[in-house]
Amino acid sequence: MEIKINHELRMDSGVPFQSVVEFRFEWMPNQHAVLEVDGYTDRDILYGKDTVYDSKIRIWKEQNNETLFYGYVINVTEELAGGLKYIQIKAKSASCRLDQNPGSRSFQAVNQTYAETARKAVEDSGGQIICTEGNEMPIKKPVIQYDETVWAFSRRLASHLETCVVPDIISGEPALWFGMRNGSAIPPFSENEYTIQIARTGHGDGKQTETGYETESRVFYKLGDKVVFGGQRLRIYGVSARFQHGELIFRYLLKSKADYAKFYQEQFTGLGLTGTVVDVRREQVKVALDIDGGKTTGEFNYDWYPVTGNALYAMPEKGARVEVYFGSRDEQEGVGGDCFLNISDYRDFHIFRQLNAVNRSRINLFDQNVYFSRVEKNNLSLSDGYISMGNPKNLEISSRKKINMGAKKVVIIALDELNICQD
User: Fold this and answer.
1) Which neighbouring-strand residues pair with 335?
2) Whose CA, among 54, 102, 133, 357, lies 20 to 30 Å from 18?
3) Is residue 334 classed as helix, strand or coil in its secondary structure?
4) pTM summary value
C-alpha cells in the first residue's frame, strides 16, 4: 500500500498506515541495513499482520524517484492507542535474503581470485554482487563455506583482504558489494558543526588510531561516496537517517580508511571433512569432499599427514575414503590425515585400523585381534584366546621337523575329509 509521508516522501508497504510519525535507518559496511518505521492506522482496519512478514517495503523521494531504502519486513508490533492502532515496523536490506540458509561447499580451484570465489557463492544462491576488491588476488589454497550463509562466507572472505562487504539498499534485490562501494565525488559538507570520533583499532603492536568525522546534511549520499572535508580526502563509511517532526536529516561518518577485523569460522578447529581420493601424487592427495556432493571442485592436492606419524603408513589409493583435518580455525591449513574403508568403518576408526591392497588383500588391527586375508579367501585371525585359519580350497600345514599344537582345545573342521600323515 502506497502512502504519502510528507510533501516529498512516499512509502510502499503491506501495512495500511494512515500516517507515519517517524522512521530511521542505518547503513553500514559488514551488516544489513536496518529500517524502523513508527506510525498509526485505524484500529478497525484489518490487514493480515502475518502476511506482512517478509514482504517488501520501500521509501523514496517523489520528485526524482530516488530510493532511500528498499528491503524486507522482519518484524511488526501493534499497540492500541485510543481509537488508533500504533504500529512499528522493522525491516532489513534485501541482502538479508543471503543470510538465511547456512550451507557447506568447498572452493578448491586455487587459481580463482577472491572476487571470483565470492561471485560464484553469491550468484549460485540467487544473489547479485559487484566486486571492487579481490579481482587480482588468487585464493592460493582452498576456502570452504562450512555451515554458514553466503553473506557470512562473503564477509569472511572480504575480511582476509582487509576490506568489507556492503549491502545494497536501493534495488530491493539480494545484492552486495565485495569491497567498499566505488562511490561518486560529492559536494563538500558544511564544516561549521561536526563531531570527531577517535578509536583504537588492531591488536598488540599493530594498534592504530582511526579518526572519523560525523556531520549532517539534508541531501542523501551513499556509502563509498568521496568528499573533501577539513582539507582531507575522505569517504562515507556510515549513513544514518531520521525522519521526525516532518524533517529528514542524514548523518554521515567520514573516514580516510577503515580497519576491519578478520573473521574466521571457528568450527574448523578440530574439524574433519570426509571425502573420496580422486588422485594421489607423492605425499599428497586430491579429495572430492562429501560437502560438494562428491564432485571435484579443483586441482588442489592436500598434504598427507597420517595419524601414525611417518613411522609406518601407506598412501591411500584412488577411490579411498579419507578425512581432511583442520587444526585451526583457518580452513586453508587443512591436511589429509586418515583413511577408512566405508561408513561403518568410519564410525569405529579410532578402535581399529585397516590396511587394504588393490587386490582386496587386507590387514585389520582390531581391538581384540589381528586379522589377515588374501583376496578375501585365505584368512588368519590371531587373538588372545584363539588362532583361526580358513581357506575355501586345500589348507596344508607342513614342516621338515615337528609341528606342535598345544592348547586345552584344538578344533579342526573339514567339509569332506581330514588327512593327517607322517613321513
Assistant:
1) 325
2) 54
3) coil
4) 0.82
Looking at residues 354-372, what average pLDDT do you find? 72
Chain mean pLDDT for the chain: 88
Q: What is the pLDDT of residue 23?
A: 97
- The average pLDDT across 388-407 equals 76
* Beta-strand pair 175-178/128-131: parallel
pLDDT value at position 423? Answer: 64
H/E run at residue 115: helix 114-124
Contact between 380 and 388 (Cβ < 8 Å): yes
Position 210 scores a pLDDT of 79
Furthest-apart CA pair in the chain: how many Å? 118
Report the share of the chain in percent with pLDDT over 90: 60
d(CA 364, CA 224): 62
Our CA dihedral for 96, 97, 101, 105, rounded to 10 degrees, sits at -100
Rg, Å, the chain Cα set: 33
Distances in Å between the alpha carbon of 332 and those of 290, 323, 400? Answer: 17, 15, 60
Q: Which of 72, 63, 60, 65 is nearest to 243 (CA)?
A: 60
Specify whether the CB–CB gap between 87 and 78 falls below 8 A.
Answer: yes
Closest Cα to residue 336, out of 391, 261, 286, 294? 286
Alpha carbon 215 to its chain centroid, in Å, reads 36
User: Locate cell 572476487: which residue?
Assistant: 115
Buried/exposed code over 219-238 (b: 16+ C-beta within 10 A; e: otherwise)? eebbbbbebebeeeebbbbb
- Pairwise CA distance, residues 185 & 59, whole Å: 24
DSSP for residue 327: S
The two counts, helices (H) then strands (E), for the chain are: 4, 27
Which 3 state secondary structure label does DSSP give 116? Answer: helix
Least confident range of 56-70, 245-259, 376-390: 376-390
* Closest C-alpha among 291, 289, 32 to residue 147: 291
> CB of 316 within 8 A of CB of 283?
no
Euclidean distance between CA atoms 270 and 324, whole angstroms: 10
All three cell numbers of 24: 530511521
399 pLDDT exceeds 80? no
At residue 346, does pLDDT exceed 50? no
**Domains delineated in the chain:** 2-96 (2.30.300.10), 101-178 (3.55.50.10), 195-255 (no CATH), 266-350 (2.40.50.140)
